[in-house]
Amino acid sequence: MPVLSHSAVPLMLRPALVVFFRQLLCWRTMWRQYLILRLVEPAIFFYGLGAGFAMLIPQIGGFDYKTFLLPGSIAMSLMFGSLIDGSYGAYVRIFMQRTWPSFLATPTRIAHIMAGEMAFIGMRSVLSATMLLLAGMMLGAKVSVLGFILALPVIVLLAITLMAVGYVATGLARSIDDFDFVWAFVLTPMMVFSGALVDLRVYPEPIQWLAQFLPLTHGVAAIRGLLLGTIGPLGVFGHMAALLAILAVCATLAHHLLKQRLTD
Amino acid sequence: MTTPQPAIQAKGLTKTYKPRGGGPVVEAVKGIDFVVKKGTCTGLLGPNGAGKSTTMKMLMGLTQRSGGTLDIFGHDAAGLSREERTRIALVPQDDNLDPDLTVSENLMVYGMLFGISRAVLKDRVPQILQYMQLTEKADARVNQLSGGMKRRLTIGRALVNDPDLLFLDEPTTGLDPQARVMIWQRILELKKQGKTLLLTTHYMDEAQRLCDHIIMIDHGKVLDEGSPAQLIDKHVKKHVFDVTKPIPLDLPPVDSEDVGDSVLFYVEDGATFRKKLPEDATYLHRPANMEDVFLRLTGRKLRD
Predict the structure, then answer these.
(1) Are the C-beta atoms of B51 and B80 separated by less than 8 Å?
(2) Same domain for B68 and B204
């Protein structure tokens, strides 16, 4: 039996690479739609909120509100893209289309599928974040392009971490309606308490403290810091370490839950 | 002399699980022994809930066994190496083709998951499509296919890694006679190529036609096993007379079974028995088949 030609890829990673390739094949027919939606939706949000609140908030931490908001909008758009693919999207692929079970009849294991899908989301989020950055700059946000390039690893890490959070929800969900809990207990709190829209310091201390457990809080802080040039390398690494910790916990838990569901 | 190593060997295989909603522990498989010889087609037959699917899942490593041993190619089925897993393929009961991909992409991605290079697949995928008569549908989406085409693609997908051992879980359920005959031909060809097949089906004519060896299971236990001819001989004799009631009084005392409106008589010598039937009796005379064996062994009561 001939082996895969790209022998440079370690044997363990090859099925994950094929899963990535599969995601790419699916995306081939809908990337335009995806990029347009991922651009238009956050751009409306950014423009509406930015213009609206700019009247009330002339300055926030020394920046105009639009500039303050753009990194938060980028992080929030990643949250919707990744968390929804890890929850609704993965639920459909696992329990409705039964794509994952079909892969498990090959040498592919659950960890390979998770890794391949997460890698794809990481790549996709770089594209959508870049589009939104350009739109935001055209709408008047004054952010650093170099800062954005430096923020790319954070963007990828944030997207993957949020996907892992979505996978945990998928591991727990008994029906697709259960994802209503994700909206109520994950998406909405993150949207409000991550500091994406307003400075986190306006909230009471216990909320600020709890917000540290939300991946989006660290994503917003690092991406905003880099785009506005207000953070040092140590700060960025700190937030990345926090994201890695959340990723490790969620990915391990999700793997455990999904393995139980799929090999029961 | 040692006998050649079987493709599959189960000894005292058990599977128990706790129902998700609570309640007592369910024993799905209660200590079964069986052997699947290399190069044969073996049928695993039984009513719904007999333990067939659970056994298939244990073979595929999709559920852990609770006890006993289960070996594939002489190694524990739960811990097969990557290399060994590439020699096995599954045709699942329900279609789980990838609806986001085209027909040929389905085969391409599946082959790559088995570690086959794209260069090899470029030749192999069209060959399989032709073999399963799907060439014209190569670029169609899965949801544009009919039920029969989906099944053919599912079987073609299981051939993409050129497996030595093939699990077929109800491969022809819900198909029209044309599609069934086509799939039967392919299965017989695979057997000729020396592949080992393990088949589950609810169609007894299918089992009789395709299988060299049949294992009957029910309530998690093996009821009997043997070739179709052996099982028919053993359990129901050669001929069946389905005699409509009222039953003539002076019939010889042979093995019989009351099935409601009529009584089935199982006899070795059909001509002799027919002479014993009165002129005006209404009956149907036919050779005994696996369906008779199945119903005799597992009873006529409906299952859930």
Answers:
(1) no
(2) yes
Q: Look at residues B132, B131, B133, B125 and name the one whose alpha carbon lies nearest to residue B104.
A: B125
* DSSP reduced 3-state for A194: coil
ipTM attached to this prediction: 0.88
Rounded to a whole number of angstroms, the distance from the CA of A121 to the nearest CA of chain B is 17
Tell me: do B83 and B28 sit in the same domain: yes
Instruction: State how far the Cα of B129 lies from the Cα of B168, in Å rounded to an integer.
Output: 19
On whether both B77 and B168 belong to a single domain, the answer is: yes
Among candidates A11, A101, A106 on the partner chain, residue whose Cβ is nearest the Cβ of B114: A106
CB contacts, 8 Å: A263 with chain B: 61-64
For residue A264, what is the nearest residue in chain B, using CA coordinates? B63
Q: Are A133 and A89 in contact (CB under 8 A)?
A: no
Q: In the numeric block, which tokens belong to residue A183?
A: 């909206």
Amino acid A2: pLDDT: 41
User: What b/e string do you get for B188-204 counting C-beta neighbours within 10 Å, with b at 16 or more?
Assistant: eebbeeebbbbbbbebb
Q: What is the pTM of this model?
A: 0.91
- The whole domain housing B152 covers 95-162
Q: Are residues B79 and B203 in the same domain?
A: yes
At residue B73, what is the residue type?
F
